[in-house]
Structures
1.
Amino acid sequence: KGVVSNFGSLSEKLVSIIEMKNEMYELNGKVALVTGAGGERGIGRAIATRLASEGADVIVNDIVVRPYDSQTGWGGLPEVVREIEALGRPAISIAADVSDASQVEGMIRQALQRFGHIDTLVNNAGSRPGRDRVPVVDLDEEAWDTVQRINVKGTFLCCKAVARHMIDRGEGGKIINISSTSGKRGVARFAAYCASKFAVIGFTQALALELAPYRINVNAICPGTVDTERTGYIAAALAPTGTSAEADREQMIRGGASQSPLGRVAQGSDVARMAAFL
Ligand code: NAD
């Protein structure tokens, strides 16, 4: 009997997961802040536009207006704002360093001046892969610190500032931290990144317990390989000298696809769908 009833609840869960694929979440009247959202193929842009298409007003952040040099003429944050406005939702962009407390406080002040409240925070900003993707014995202290400062301290500072506002307002809220499968399993040459993403999961669990009484849900998403500008930087950092960065990137995407039961790596839109559900 136990097996049958467990199977029943499992199949109900599967049905609800399948339904999630096409479900829309009424986010009208909600305001979302998404950090690290200026990249053309980035997860942040996909989340920001998905939340807007569900009805949310959106504040998009990145450390600079145009985070990646673009071959395509991509203009960064102002383009994401235009996309969201084309979906019929108001949006603003705020360039700020999430690892700097005064810049984070300034960003939240500016966001509240414009929209009055924040219902959803997505901590998506992440340090750019580069000198940190080396064996630990070759890892510079400075490269280690940069990864922890942006990925861990940046998440902490944004959560602290927004959670204070959400508690004062008393209307609950949603906080979504982007961790990684590298936050659940070690990967050679990813030690600084793995340490930071494991930290994000521990931080998320602790904060979820603290904020539950205020009806603020705190969750982490742990994507595997997602096809963004970032994968090019990881491939370039890991590539043996003399090989083509583009060929290495394609090999990385193929490798990621072969390890996935779906036979493909994720796109930003896959992560955005999960964020909309949360
Ligand atoms: P991305 O590099 O395009 O996005 C990260 C963004 O954060 C960039 O636009 C960058 O400019 C911005 N940023 C960096 N430092 C910042 C700072 N101090 N303040 C504000 N913004 C800052 O990469 P992505 O692939 O879209 O990754 C988004 C998130 O998802 C990251 O946290 C990353 O670790 C995580 N993730 C990515 C993958 C993947 O395979 N692409 C897998 C798992 C997790």
2.
Amino acid sequence: MGFLNDIEPLKQTALTELKAAPDLAALEQTKGAWIGPNGKFTALMKQLGTLSKEEKPAAGKLINAAKVELEAALASRREELELKAALPKEPTDFTLPGRRRALGKLHPLTQVTDDIVRAFRKIGFAVADGPEIEDEYHCFDALNTPADHPARDSQDTFYLNTTDKRLLRTHTSSVQIRVMEKQAPPVRIIVPGRVYRRDNADATHNPTFHQIEGLYVDKNVTVGDLKGTVEFVFRELMGSDVKIRFRPHYFSYTEPSYEIDFTNALVKKMGKDWLEIAGCGMVHPQVFETVGYDPEVWTGWAFGFGIERIAMLRYGINDIRLFYENDVRFLKQF
Ligand code: DAH
């Protein structure tokens, strides 16, 4: 019978149309046109009855196989289109702010860091960043810290098990060097970041904590600028009753160097007159030489202080370890 030769080309056309259906409605229509009650393929099947006894089995087999194939193509296209229909019509921009605030709160250390950064931004400081895994050069040598300095001792520093003596940075001062290596003066940066020391954990020490480093390089920079800046930032953070005091100290990368003491009503309430809060000083000419800044032209100051220290003071927390335990009963209070 002639129609046997029609099966294959009809099936091919039907398959092509099913696969090309652009959406679910079009697919249903295509289905109707081929294998619905009045479909072209259904009509073909109806003709089976007109075949002779000898022809029927082979023809029936052929038609059934073709029908199974069409139904499979229909199901798979339907699945594809259903998936497509479930997707958003427009691409999603995951950087857009949410309509609701995310669940939970920012960690108190994050909140304090954000506040410090905000205060420095008001007076033109940019945030810089550097690696926590450092080399001895950036952490010590370039900061004018000699090889026999006790801070370099493996007692104080976490050294990595590498042949090139890499270490976990003991302070954010290493980022001063990294920034000056890359950038010509003037420089006005702060560096919030994590640091590591082999301190045994007790109420006021932890093997990892956070610092903020500051570096200001320009022409004719003075200690007065440094003191004014520190005063401004601490008043922003802790209120207008803050007083600052500089005490002479020693750091290898600054000359002169100072420790910064701080006081306000909170400190007095703790029964203390002053609290030591930071180290600072005028950038040592040797440090400028090392990074290729001309010390005859450029002047600058730097400071570094502990973020936990400030957070503990601000919130009246007396055990530093509370910050890292992530006990919800603690975190909920901020
Ligand atoms: N790096 C010092 C520390 O970890 C803090 C410090 C002191 C940073 C003096 C400075 C500085 O930039 O000038 O204790």
